[in-house]
Design a protein that fits this description.
The chain is of the alpha/beta class. Helices cover 41% and strands 18% of the residues. The protein is built from twelve helices and nine strands. The strands form two sheets. Strands 5-4-3-6-7-9-8 form a seven-stranded mixed β-sheet, sandwiched between helices. Strands 1-2 form a two-stranded antiparallel ribbon. Helix 2 runs antiparallel to helix 4. The chain is elongated and about 65 Å long. The protein binds S-adenosylmethionine. S-adenosylmethionine binds next to helix 7 and helix 10.
Length: 288
């Protein structure tokens, strides 16, 4: 497959500026929504430069080894592999996490879920926290990282995801317990002070309409599991300590029915928080 960098065979044209331009054009032609950003981050990885340093190094030629690495990274991204998987790591809150096909890439909107989760346990010195469907461990690790007294457990039904989460525990040095557990079998007995979850919430019928980066590369079990949001809400009723809180990330259009469900289940202080795009994204409530 063409990597778009053929013209860089001539040494005089192997400069950072030239490779950036060719890579950007190639990735745009292959359908990337963010071709320039992709090209910059991939070229930064290939050269060992910071992204900002690329701009001060436009005339610097790439050596043969750097060019080989750049070619391979750009070719992977051109196949619509997510940028985050190609780079192998991604930032979430204050942490850099390993990301690969074993688990969903942590999303910016999930940082808002963490904001709400931290607010819900702000008054508690040593809250017991359960993250349901932990994936990379992003939510569990961020809460443990940002609340010094929190004791956090992450559960997932995927052994692959749990293996990746364990690597992130080791990588970050943040203490989080991990366990294999199917959320449809109820939640592990706490009693927890907070249950937080970004459950699979994409309608199975919508999977085919997603961007190739999501549809063809991220685990479908992380995207879609019918009834998962309601199962976490129902499971929380018995798993939460009195006064304990539940915070759920939900898909577009799901916040109002989820808030209604929480009210029906007896939760109080039910609040919906929008994401940065203005979409109602996080639903929370408290057990009386
Ligand atoms: C949307 S991803 C969230 C991952 C991570 N918490 C995040 O926010 O980036 C949903 C997670 O739920 C897990 N999952 C799916 N079905 C499950 C089940 N029945 N029981 C437990 N976890 C499940 C998936 O493996 C996946 O890691």
């Amino acid at each position: 497959m063409s990597d778009g960098l053929e013209a860089t065979q001539q040494p005089a044209t192997n400069t950072v500026a030239h490779v950036l331009r060719l890579s950007t054009e190639h990735l745009a032609a292959r359908g990337s929504d963010t071709p320039r950003l992709d090209a910059e981050l991939l070229l930064a990885r290939a050269t060992g430069l910071e992204r900002i340093e690329l701009y001060m190094s436009f005339d610097r030629p790439l050596n043969a080894a750097e060019l080989d690495v750049a070619r391979e990274l750009v070719a992977r991204r051109a196949r619509r592999e997510p940028l985050q998987y190609v780079l192998g790591e991604w930032g979430f809150r204050r942490l850099i996490l390993t990301v690969d096909r074993r688990a969903l890439i942590p999303r910016p909107e999930t940082e808002i879920l963490v904001d709400r989760a931290l607010a819900l346990v702000a008054g508690s010195e040593t809250p017991l926290v359960l993250d349901v469907g932990t994936g990379t461990g992003a939510i569990a690790l961020a809460i443990a990282d940002e609340h010094a007294g929190a004791r956090v457990t992450g559960i997932d039904s995927s052994a692959d995801a749990l293996a990746l989460a364990a690597e992130n525990v080791a990588r970050t040095g943040v203490a989080v317990q991990l366990a294999r557990h199917d959320l449809f079998e109820g939640l592990p007995a706490g009693p927890w002070n907070l249950v937080v979850s970004n459950p699979p919430y994409v309608d199975a019928a919508d999977l085919a309409t997603l961007q190739p980066e999501v549809r063809d590369w991220e685990p479908h079990a992380a995207l879609s599991a019918e009834g998962a949001v309601a199962a976490v809400a129902r499971g929380s009723v018995s798993a939460l300590a009195p006064g304990g809180a539940l915070a759920l990330e939900v898909g577009e259009g799901q916040a109002a029915p989820t808030a209604t469900l929480l009210t029906q289940l007896g939760f109080v202080d039910v609040v919906v928080t929008p994401d940065l795009a203005g979409i109602d994204r996080v639903v929370e409530g408290r057990r009386p």
